[in-house]
Design brief:
Shape: globular
Helix content: 25-40%
Number of helices: 15
Radius of gyration: 24 Å
Strand content: 15-25%
Strand order of the largest sheet: 5-2-7-1-6
Number of strands: 18
CATH architecture of one domain: Sandwich
CATH topology of one domain: Jelly Rolls
Largest sheet: 5 strands, antiparallel
Length: 522
């Protein structure tokens, strides 16, 4: 665990306010001299209005203490209470390893009813093994640069526990959160694979607490991504015998499709259900039924990844069976529909069809692309990961750039405009639902810019081989640095000059040509 101590000093007359610039999981120490006994109010918070900490009814930090002082020099260790999650019955992460006491995320410190000089020391905690200069990105688009900086810092600040968690509201691992957090971590640092490994271990031990169907089905992808970046085959071999249980194959009906009507009888204590997106307000009017296209597309993809991990052809056969069933029962007039019996195609259905290769003809692809282009960002911060992956997969580079740099209520620039300095649980305070301001699943561009804009993705375990498939859209230039255990990959992309640095011992593939160690002009 890395500790960064920041100190500020001010003269106070009844009220004093400190802004540390960025949100971080932290502890606080205060020094002051009291000419007479005082009842001092101390507040730490994530948000503020003017020079006052903001007390909200959601899950943004607001911790208040009244301290009675004596005469003379005082050193006050601000007491952060023991963490209690929103839902106390679920497992959660308490104090992170390396921290001496409980921590809380905050940016602001407000001190009232003191007369005289105040010195405050904030000790911020950051993820172990992270070096800021390991990764880098610069480009010609100011908005994209701002989004990158915001999301990269979010991953650094929000990954401090021994597992990837879903935010301060619950501090609980979920597969969807890990998908985005892990990729953001690996695209910016190669100094710590322990957090990812610990989180996957957790899912095998406590997987019953994952109630969304789709998120259990993400487990093969999590392991595949972990293997590609880390090269840790030993852990993967340990997980493989348990992995098929995450596929929920016993919840398929006679049509080979996952059916919610079977979940309760198969998993009576797990409260398993299809989530589509979260919060529900972000589902773009999806018509839920017993048999929904989203979890079934996830299943088909999970089965294909199982084949990649195991080499067993049975998984490809099962994937083909599910895909065939989806096309037979969940397609109407050239468009996939949300669920059996529905005539509706929402954004999620269209983007999932593109992301998971459900379309067979150019006409089908074009029809679903048209829906995606028309809908914009009609999904959550979690859905944005899948949406932009789908767009990138189908060479919709300008739309990807538009989504990444948008400034509507559903945008990363809006998170910043509302005062956040770390990624939030939902797009905006106006959307409703639960919200905390330390939710790494809101930082998808920390991986999407690397993987989809610069197009750098590992295709062999431990980054021994990687693809370079940039989609710069209207960017005039960009430079991206991707850390690996072998050294840094650097792609310097300009209209008239394109340079790729391949570190020792690995290979790059660009437009079908293999590039070995060295600096290459593309």
């Amino acid at each position: 665990m890395k500790k960064v101590v920041q100190t500020q000093k001010k003269d106070a007359y009844q009220h004093c306010f400190f802004d540390f610039g960025c949100n971080a999981y932290s502890t606080l120490k205060i020094e002051l001299d009291c000419p007479f006994p005082e009842n001092i109010e101390i507040i730490v918070s994530e948000s503020a209005i003017g020079d006052q900490a903001e007390h909200t009814i959601d899950y943004r930090t607001f911790i208040q203490r009244i301290i009675q002082t004596s005469v003379g020099h005082q050193v006050i260790d601000f007491n952060i209470p023991q963490y209690i999650p929103a839902y106390g019955c679920n497992p959660y992460c308490s104090c992170p390893p390396g921290a001496d006491t409980e921590v809380a995320p905050f940016r602001y410190v407000e001190i009232n009813r003191h007369y005289g000089e105040i010195t405050v020391h904030r000790t911020a905690y950051y993820v172990d093994g992270w070096e800021d200069d390991e990764s880098d990105f610069s480009c010609s688009d100011e908005a994209l640069q701002k989004v990158w900086d915001f999301c990269k810092y979010s991953i650094k600040a929000e990954s401090i526990f021994d597992k990837y968690v879903d935010g301060e509201r619950e501090r609980m691992p979920y597969e969807a959160d890990m998908m985005i957090n892990q990729l953001g971590h690996f695209c910016n640092s190669c100094g710590n694979f322990d957090t990812a490994r610990n989180t996957i271990d957790y899912f095998f031990e406590f997987g019953q607490y994952t109630w969304p169907t789709e998120w259990r089905l993400l487990t093969p992808r999590l392991i595949y991504d972990y293997l590609m970046y880390s090269g840790d085959t030993r852990s993967v071999q340990r997980w493989l015998p348990m992995l098929e249980s995450k596929l929920l194959l016993d919840c398929r009906d006679g049509n080979n499709l996952l059916n919610q009507a079977l979940y309760k009888s198969k998993y009576p204590h797990d409260k398993l259900q299809d989530i589509i997106d979260h919060p529900p307000a972000e589902r773009d009017n999806y018509e839920l039924g017993d048999v929904n296209i989203v979890p079934n597309a996830f299943l088909a993809d999970a089965l294909k990844i199982m084949h990649q991990l195991t080499g067993q052809s049975k998984y490809l056969c099962k994937a083909a069976e599910v895909r065939t069933a989806i096309r037979q029962h969940l397609m109407r007039d050239g468009l996939f529909v949300d669920s059996i019996g529905s005539q509706h195609t929402n954004l999620h259905t269209a983007m999932i069809a593109l992301r998971f290769d459900l379309c067979d003809t150019p006409q089908e692809t074009a029809a679903h692309k048209a829906i995606v282009l028309n809908k914009g960002m009609a999904c959550s911060v979690y859905g944005a990961q899948l949406l932009i992956e789908a767009c990138s997969k189908h060479n919709m580079a300008e739309h990807v750039l538009k989504l990444l740099t948008g400034n509507s209520k559903r945008s990363w620039l809006n998170m910043i405009a509302e005062g956040a300095t770390t990624a939030t649980e939902i797009w905006s305070l106006d959307i409703g639902g639960n919200i905390d301001w330390t939710h790494a699943w809101g930082a998808a561009p920390a991986n999407l810019i690397t993987r989809e804009v610069a197009g750098i993705k590992p295709i062999a375990a431990g980054f021994k081989k990687f693809t370079v498939d940039p989609q710069p859209a209207s960017l005039k230039y960009f430079t991206l640095k991707q850390p690996t255990v072998h050294g840094a990959i650097v792609l310097d992309w300009q209209e008239n000059a394109k340079l790729l640095t391949v570190p020792p011992g690995i290979e790059a593939v660009y437009k079908g040509q293999v590039y070995t160690t060295g600096v290459h002009s593309l």
